[in-house]
Amino acid sequence: MEPLPNSRTEPDGSAVIRVLSYNIRSMRDDTAALARVIAACDPDLVLLQEAPRFFRWRKKLARLAAASGLVILSGGATAAGPALLCSLRATVERTEDVLFPLTPGRHRRGLATAVVRIGGARLGVLSCHLSLDADERHAQAGLLLDRLAGMGVTHAVAGGDLNERPGGRTFRRLGDGLRDCWTAAPWGSEYTFRASGPDRRIDAVFVTEGIEVLGCGVPLGLPGVAEDDLRAATDHLPVLTALRLPASGD
């Protein structure tokens, strides 16, 4: 496997960053293995889904962040599950947790969002976990795109558990407005679910135009990422993406 670029800031202010998207199943599995996987991926930004939402959820999320060498950026119970972590390389401009309309009898869903600066680049960041229901999922994708458009940024990254494979209408709707990073620069492995025997890609990272995708995929074979840890950490496999962000003039 070709090595994934390490994070760095170029002399012109552009930044190479690593973004990790990961459904962590409310940290109900091996949290030490989970922290080891996240730390080995050496991300600047982590887009979590199914972060803890109930008793002492902030403390649990803070412990995961600390064990991974990161800090909490936003989300958790206040976003109905999605959360963002970041390295100290990121300067936070603002954060906002967004709740989708609640359909009676279904799980509440939402978005964790932030605007950060890394090097000379300014970036919108969004983590999502879309509905199991096809119609609701499609509507939530539209709300996600509307939220990105209203963040006041030129460049953004969005990722999460879509609960849908490529080719589905929600996946296509997101791909019409954004670039699917796996399609743009496949790296590592493709399938993300289930961790014990993956046979489908339902987790993805997307970016707006103007961001260069340097590689994207499940980090199987990445130094420090043990297959036993991937299977023990949660029921999904993570998606690791390397991006080059242009320096921002705003």
Which class best fits the helix and strand makeup? alpha+beta
* Estimated radius of gyration: 16 Å
Give the % helix: 10-25%
Main β-sheet: number of strands, strand sense, barrel status? 7 strands, mixed
Question: Tell me, what's the shape?
Answer: globular
Assembly annotation: single chain
Termini separation comes to 37 Å
Number of helices: 6
Element-by-element helix/strand order: EEHEHEEEEEHEHEHEEHE
Q: Are there runs of 5+ residues with pLDDT below 50, and where?
A: none
Beta-strand portion reads 25-35%
Strand count: 13
* Average pLDDT over all residues: 97
Quickly list its features.
23% helix; alpha+beta; seven-stranded mixed sheet; six-stranded mixed sheet; 250 residues
Give an account of the 3D structure:
This protein is of the alpha+beta class and 250 residues long. It has helices at residues 31-41, 57-67, 134-149, 169-177, 181-184, 227-233, and strands at residues 8-9, 15-23, 45-49, 71-75, 83-86, 91-99, 110-118, 121-129, 156-161, 179-180, 203-207, 212-217, 239-245. Strands 1, 2, 3, 4, 5, 12 and 13 form a seven-stranded mixed beta sheet that branches. A six-stranded mixed beta sheet has the order 6-7-8-9-11-10. Strand 1 (8-9) and strand 2 (15-23) form a beta hairpin. Helix 1 (31-41) packs across helix 6 and helix 3 (134-149) packs parallel to helix 4. The chain is globular, with a radius of gyration of 16 Å.
